[in-house]
Specification:
Number of domains: 1
Strand order of the largest sheet: 1-2-3
Structural class: mainly alpha
Strand content: 5-15%
CATH topology: Four Helix Bundle (Hemerythrin (Met), subunit A)
Number of strands: 3
Largest sheet: 3 strands, mixed
Radius of gyration: 17 Å
Order of helices and strands: HHEHHHEEH
CATH architecture: Up-down Bundle
Distance between the termini: 48 Å
């Protein structure tokens, strides 16, 4: 599936906007126990950390590989399988959000320098043909889902306090 110029621009705007959304979380989550895990779930800190992990260890390298070598094929473990929350400094939310923001700004700046035709380049990822734009859209959808879970969690914790 090819992405129109408008759709690619929207995905890039979404990806950039999610940086602002994550930054705004600093103020909301500062008042909650970010390392507290619900039964069978992840802590707020872990939910943020997996966003960072997905971007730097899965989506960005895949997109960069396809941009450099279109049509290439790669088999890579999904970020959810390679995520290790122990690699992150538990509870240091400000540091994590700062790192996420810095990485995102760098990535978006890099992508905005690309022509629309570059972001339409495709490669094989685990046996499935995907374009850079598709991977970017998938990344932003995952992040939005994670941020929604965090917001729900914050509301849940807030309700318990009252």
């Amino acid at each position: 599936m090819d992405f129109s110029t408008e759709r690619i621009n929207n995905v890039l705007q979404d990806a950039a906007y999610l940086t602002d959304e994550a930054e705004a979380l600093k103020y909301v989550i500062s008042a909650i126990p970010v390392n507290e895990k619900p039964p069978g779930g992840a802590s707020v800190f872990e939910m943020l950390a997996i966003i960072d992990h997905a971007q730097i260890s899965y989506y960005r390298p895949l997109i960069e590989q396809i941009l450099v070598k279109p049509g290439s094929s790669t088999n890579v473990q999904h970020f959810e399988k390679t995520f290790d929350p122990e690699k992150y400094e538990a509870g240091n939310t400000d540091k994590l959000l700062g790192k996420m923001s810095k990485n995102r700004v760098s990535f978006i700046t890099y992508l905005k320098k690309m022509a629309v035709s570059d972001l339409q380049k495709k490669g094989e990822v685990n046996g499935s043909t995907r374009s850079c734009a598709q991977l970017l859209e998938e990344m932003t959808q995952f992040e939005r889902q994670q941020l929604r879970k965090i917001a729900d969690r914050v509301l849940s914790i807030d309700k318990k306090k009252t």
